[in-house]
Fold each of these.
Amino acid sequence: MTWVQRHIAVIAGEQAERVPGASLDALAPLLARLRVDLRRAVNMAVLRRSSGKASGQLKFQLAAAGAAGITDLEPDGKGRATLWLRPLGDAMPDVFRQAEFWPSRPDPEWTAFDLLASVVEEISAGKAESNLFDESFLHSIGRYSQPFREQDFSGIQFVDSRLSEGTILNEATLQVAAQLSRKTPSPQIARLEGKLDTVRLSGRCFELLLETGDRVSGVLLEGDPAELSARMGTSIAVGGQAIWKASGHLLRVDATSIEPVAQSNAFFSQVPVPISANGIRRYSKRLTTSPHLQELVGSLTGPGESDAEFWAAVEELS
């Protein structure tokens, strides 16, 4: 079993000066939040859900990767606390043992600390297209406001992450997280049909290859993962919720049902978009070019109404 050291520093004031006199007792609320988000960062990297659930041996390996022992602040006046973590490859051997055609795993030498620092970097930069966080993670990041306020801290610094030195989570990060959260569309009911192209991690995580050539990531929340694995390479229909990025693009599908289909329906074999005003416009433009809906549109139009007038009405309603 291998352990590595990483360091955080509590900062205060506009100059982001370190607070050397803080004790672990004073930092308890802040460190409690940090432990939560270390686990979230691991879940997001492996399960693609920050609040992902797992079972069997994987559950214990995820917990081991997200755990952190924290020792007292260093007596050298630098205001740093030492975190002891296991490298991801050491803590989760099953995750890195499975072969991947499309690489999607983090560096096995990284730790949960490095993953979380990466998340903070992407949030601080306002990267709405990021795959490193979901809306639940954004809400969790926003909860640092309370320990910051109660202890009069302005942030914490990830001193020595593998990504970069000096990553800072502060009030500016929380404001960007709130903005990204507001931009993120609400989850919506979705149905997708395509070829089950990849299954990994005890059958819970999968990828669908759509007729458009796009790949969609999904997580099976309910049902028997063995059933999903048994359908590898076949056409299936997935029902559940579409989960979005802050950009409005699809992040993943949280699947609650799967069923075989003889052949994918082109209407359901394309990447969904949020059902908002812009989403309806994007759908209407997409559907006007779909040969599979021409007959349906013809049945919906009124006497003397052209297809163009039908879609104009859809646009007006949006």
Amino acid sequence: MLWLFLALILIGVTWVVTSDNPWAQEMQELAGKKHDQSILETEAPFSIAAHSFRFYKFDLPEGSAHISVVGQFSAAPDTRGSKISNDPAKDAPVDSSIEVYVLTEPAFAVWEKGYAASSVYQSGKVQQGTLQANLLADVGVYYLVFSNKADTKTAKKVTATILLHYNSWGPNWFRRLKDWVNDEREFVGAFASASFLRFLKSSQGA
């Protein structure tokens, strides 16, 4: 009886791992470990020249799920090296805003060339903001971009803490079990279809 009990447990665990059933998906999430991986944590502000940008490329961890990028950022004029003027017109308030994007790799290639591209996240022109965006696991590579392209005169100093938040569970071989089962299902389905067609042809010939 013990082997039967163990077999039932193995079947149940395999179903939870491989099934797309909502209940099984919920069990996977409950069993998951939540992680926060740093994309960018500034100890000191970094500078972005006028009409320029700075980017950070990041990959999604293998086997991760329920992935999001979260964090805060702020910007201010970078006045280092600027000369103080006694002319009130020249000392008028300067633009303190920055634009922040999260882009897929193909979208970044388009945006970098100066064209409009669809973004996962876009802050608009702001002095500070909170970043929150869900990511697709099958995309793989993303770009976090800080853009000062809209300001042709003033450099910006930026402070940011941006994290990758995700769930993962089980060892790598266990997480790969779902892909293996799906591949086997496709093979068995294709074999059964081919066998059925051969049977129909032989029946017609008879």
Amino acid sequence: MPMSNYDIANYVLGLLDKINFYDGKDELDSDLINQFVTKSIGGNPRSIKRLINSLALIKILNDKDLGGESDGVIRDKDEAMVMFAMVCLQIAHPEIYQLFADNPNFREWNEDLAYRETQKKEEADKNWTKNFEQAKNTDNFNEDWEQCLFRVCYTNPRRRAKASAISEFISIFDEQFNQKEIISMIESALGIQMLGRLKALTSHILFRVMRHGNKIELKKITWLKNLLIFHLRSQKKQLMRI
């Protein structure tokens, strides 16, 4: 059963505390947590637990690599909130999350990017022109990046229904964070999540190699290792601990 906005924030904060997700001097913003949750995964306790489990897994996978140098707990409030937001987005709208993974600077999203994603399939809908013009006259879709988002969402009925909420979700990054730093924080959050997924996949393949001695799996290990090395070289020093 969905919870009230007040209950959502307090419930999430309690769960984040249990996994030791954040330990900074400033408290996490409960209103911001509520906005990110309600505009993405919603207030269903099952969805929230999935979110917390994902954050806990990311922390575990990265804690192993930090070793004795650090406990892996996030101590910067803004970094913690951006990581939280990106995992919310990944769970609720994986296709939009992937759009971020490929193009982290959402302010640069435009019609060319939309075309690469949809090949203008959205324009085949008989109501497209009317709906697009109406959308452009709203606060949620009056900028180029928002119109790109509208096009990407339009091709999928489920995403189309959530397009306004997704736009409002992304707009929080500009409204609530340092505009000069937010893109780099998004890139860092995406990098940490990518490393976690790659390490989990590598461990799974390695187990199969040890169990079956499959040469094809060994080739996959080599490919993943090279991919990890390439990724690490492109990250800031604080992400180069693997």
